[in-house]
Amino acid sequence: MFTEMSLSAWSTGVRSKLSLPLRVELWNGEHVDLSSDPPRVTIRVPRPASLRYLLSPSLYKLGSAYVEGALEIRGHAADMIRIGSELAAAKGEGRRRPNPLRLLSLHTRKKDAEAIRYHYDVSNDFYAAWLDPNLVYSCAYFEHGDEDLASAQLNKIDHILRKIDVRPGQRLLDIGCGWGALAMRAAQQFGARSVGITLSENQAQLARERVAQAGLDRQVEIRLQDYRDIDGQFDRITSVGMFEHVGVQHLPDYFTKIGALLAPGGVVMNHGITTTDVDARATPYGGGAFIDQYVFPHGELAHLSTVIKAMQQGGLEVRDVENLRRHYARTCAMWTENFESRFEAIGRLTDARRLRIWHVYLAGCAYGFAHDWISLYQIVAGKAGEDPAQIPWSRRYMYP
Q1: DSSP H helical segments within 192-303, as ranges?
Q2: 20 to 30 A Cα–Cα from 140, which one of 38, 308, 377, 398?
Q3: Is 139 a catalytic residue?
Q4: CA 137, 143, 148, 151 torsion-angle sign
């Protein structure tokens, strides 16, 4: 039975190691402060049984308790994540653990479609409330660090399209096209003929509407389609924020499929999140377990070395690699700020449970990228054994 005495012993132990701007409020009206500074986060424990989440804390336990209503937590999400991580570290909960998803391999067409729809088919209005106007849901690119989100997202799209040297008339495939921003930009600014695919019905519907509104029907096609079912040849292929859903064991097959779709002399770019743990264990403090359960079912992160090996196994030659970890930390921080500034309005677009999930998820991602738990790499590749004559000798063309 957890009691106020248990909490007293716990708070004494925490204060001997840390000074946290945290207040714990009990069901009986009493409270405990873990610092002499004003509290930035308040955790209300509504019943004695809920103390167990605090006495042995991890990001998974605290996040789950918040989502399910076992604890009431008030404060900015960035502070909540930071304080939760420090509590877990003080209790020795930071060790990375094996990721059980590596053994499950549940990546059938049906399972993948269900996972994508769970995450993306909340509603288009939900995402529009905190993303940029183009609804770009991936790492932005900050040339100077002071750009607004909308500018940084266009920078990212253009950065990708310049890297793969898109030319007028070329056929471009965007795997996991989201709401169509990259496919449309490739057509509008670079003269490409674009095909974008997604498994999200909401994304496909809005992307098609946007294509029609922009008068790009003859240049851009949006399909509701699994990547395994694509046929044809493409001069350029982009995969942005997609391969995390493929499954580590399936990455060689994924890149083999991309290689088969790539025309001779073609170029592919894979832009995706990786783990920084060489054994692909879950992120520290249970953050990965929280995302697995509540945010991205069946998502898996590979280490960069695994990705490069899988690309080579798939018949591709890696030609350029760029780390954008700090760019994604900033992107997620900006998403978090947008989310919190429109918290009440977003709450009217979804249920309270999902609202709490996203509240801590976005801030948790910002913290994870900032602390090198996870990373983001853009990898440019072509068919192995080919002379990459279409790509300029110098990387200068990427940075006009």
Answers
A1: 201-213, 251-261, 287-294
A2: 308
A3: no
A4: negative
Predicted TM-score (pTM) of the model is: 0.91
Sequence-distant contacts of 5-8: CB under 8 A, at least 24 apart: 6/51, 6/55, 7/32, 7/45, 7/51, 7/54, 7/55, 8/32
Strands (E), 233-373: 234-240, 262-275, 316-323
Q: Is 100 exposed, middle or buried (0-12, 13-18, 19+ CB in 10 A)?
A: exposed
- Neighbouring CB atoms inside 10 A of 372's CB total 11
Please, what is the angle between helix 201-213 and helix 181-190, to 10°? Answer: 20
Buried-exposed string 16-46: b where 16+ CB fall within 10 A, e elsewhere = eeeebbbbbbbeeeeebbbeeeebbbbbebe
What three-state secondary structure class fits 267? strand
CA distance 34 to 136: 40
Pair of tokens at residue 390: 């279409």
Q: Are strands 220-224 and 374-383 parallel, antiparallel or unpaired?
A: unpaired
- Reading the block at residue 179, the tokens are 């709401």
4-90: CATH class: alpha beta
Q: Where are the domains of the chain?
A: 4-90, 103-398
Distance CA 97, CA 283 (A): 8
* pLDDT tens per residue across span 62-88: 999 999 999 999 999 999 999 999 998
Q: pLDDT of 274-310, one tens digit each?
A: 999 988 877 777 888 888 888 877 778 999 999 999 9
Q: Do domains 4-90 and 103-398 have the same CATH topology?
A: no
What confidence tens digit (pLDDT) does each residue in 99-137 have?
554 445 566 767 766 666 666 667 999 999 999 999 999
Residue 344 token pair: 């009440």
Q: Check: CATH 3.40.50.150 for 103-398?
A: yes
Residue tagged active-site, from 139, 177, 332, 365: 365
Q: Where does residue 2 rank: exposed (0-12), middle (13-18), buried (19+ CB within 10 A)?
A: middle
Distance CA 55, CA 196 (A): 48
